[in-house]
Structures are given as C-alpha cells and as structure tokens.
Design brief:
By secondary structure, the protein is α/β, with parallel strands linked by helices. A seven-stranded mixed β-sheet has the order 1-3-2-4-5-6-7. The radius of gyration is 18 Å and the shape is globular.
C-alpha cells in the first residue's frame, strides 16, 4: 500500500490544477432562479470541485462549490474555513445552511459549521467519506505526523510532495520521495517536484505546478495542526463506501465531535465512486 499512502486513486486532479474562482455555482436540477436553500460543497485535497459535479447534478436545489484558489489563506484550517464562510455569505447571508464536505473537505466543512454556529446560525452537515478523524488518520499515513515544533521536517515535506507527484503526474512514489529529500530548502524541493511532474505534464507551466504543489502540501500541514476543540449541534449525516481504504470504523469518530447522534449511511462503492 505504498507505506500507507494508497495507490493514488483516492486523489484525482482535473484539467484545472489551480482554480481561479473560489465560489462557483454548479449545475443541478434546480432552475437558475430557484429560491431554495442551496448546498455548499467543499472540495477534496486537490482543491477543485470537479469530483463533486456528478453529485451536484442529481440534487434538486441550487448547489455551489468552494475551491481552494491561489489566494486562499492556508496558514491554518481555521483561516481557510473563515475565508470560505465569507464566500458562502455572499450567496446566503443567513442560515440555516447546508454544508457538504468530501474527503479532506470534511475537516473544512466541520470547521465551517463550528464558525457558523458560533455566529448563531444553524446548519446541516453532510460528510462524504470523511471527518476530521478520517483526515487526521490519512495525513498520519502520509508521514505528516512526524512534523512537530515550528515546522515540517524535510522528509515529511518530501513525502507529501512525492504523493502530489504520484497523483498529479503518475510518478513513482518512493523514487520521487528519495529525489525530493535531497534539496536543502522548501523552495528547492518545490522546484524539483514541479520539474519532475512537468516531464509528464508539459502542458502546465513550472510556476503553476509549483503553486499547486505548495497548496497541496499546505492543506495537509494545516490539517495536521488542526485539533477540534468543541462539539457542533448540527445534524450530521455521514455517507461512507463499502470499500473503505481508511482503517476507521463506525462514524469515523464523529460522535466525539457532535452533540446529536450521527446518521451513517453505507453505499456500495469506494472513496471515488
């Protein structure tokens, strides 16, 4: 299992590596002038909403996707969630809100609900194969748990960048990690990673690949440092697949973070389907 990182099928980049629009309306069954309460969908680790488009197309209400643009603040999960809350309020100033998070986006969605409830808004939270506990388990599998103190060790960063290179450019994970440990600085590792990926994906510029790789790693690190400290009151629905890569059972530790019972629905498929 590539030392706990899977085969790369858990992450899938589309043709747009770094989105230029944070909040975008997705096609759904709702008419353009619908006044129904919308659903706000939060991206997976890739930062783009592409993987949730098929789901959006089946829903009867308006659907908006949130994407991690280059200017999104990634100092912490809290700052990213606050940035998304501002985006959400441009469409829907007041609750009740329906927030949906997929995979890595589950951690962000949870934090968004924490912030909305703190502002006295009510929410419904839907999580697609993810939770703060799920994402923490996953980042630990990526060796990011070796980070401590004021930053991330070179080896941790190299493994995270190697995972990006594997899922984005289909490079060999172990060989790439060994190559990325050699550079002496974060900037040099980013440059080397982008150079390696660009051999496979020459249609993308060096700068775009560096920016995308940096965002990818920053999201992993932000989640590593995030420790939920409060419970939410929102009803929570967790949808998880029968083919489950994560070594977590039950409600993915969500009952520890919610005041209400978590509804768990299991559907046939895997993390991507």
């Amino acid at each position: 299992d590539l030392n706990g990182v899977g085969d790369g099928t858990q992450v899938k980049f589309g043709t747009e590596l770094m989105p230029t629009k944070c909040l975008t309306r997705l096609d759904s069954k709702a008419p353009a002038n619908s006044k129904d309460t919308p659903v706000f969908m939060i991206h997976a680790i890739e930062g783009v909403i592409t993987s949730l488009i098929p789901l959006a197309q089946t829903l009867p209400m308006p659907v908006y996707g949130l994407q991690c643009v280059a200017e999104a603040p990634l100092e912490s999960l809290e700052t990213l969630a606050a940035y998304y809350v501002k985006q959400i309020r441009t469409v829907q100033p007041k609750g009740p809100y329906t927030i949906l998070g997929y995979s890595f986006g589950a951690s962000i969605a949870y934090k968004i609900v924490v912030q909305l409830e703190k502002a006295k808004d009510t929410c419904i939270l839907v999580l697609i194969d993810g939770s703060p506990g799920y994402v923490s388990w996953y980042t630990e599998a990526h060796k990011q748990r070796n980070a401590y103190g004021g930053g991330v060790h070179a080896e941790d960063e190299a493994f995270a960048l190697a995972y990006f290179a594997m899922v984005c450019g289909k490079l060999d994970y172990r060989k790439t990690a060994q190559e990325l440990i050699k550079p002496k600085s974060c900037e040099a590792r980013l440059q080397k990673c982008a150079e390696l990926v660009r051999v496979k994906l020459p249609q993308y510029s060096q700068q775009l690949l560096e920016t995308t790789a940096k965002s990818f790693v920053q999201k992993i690190v932000a989640n590593h440092w995030y420790k939920p400290s409060s419970k939410i009151n929102a009803p929570v629905n967790l949808v998880k697949p029968t083919e489950n890569y994560a070594k977590l059972q039950g409600d993915y530790c969500l009952s520890e973070l919610c005041t209400k019972e978590v509804k768990v629905t299991t559907v046939k498929g895997d993390h991507r389907s």
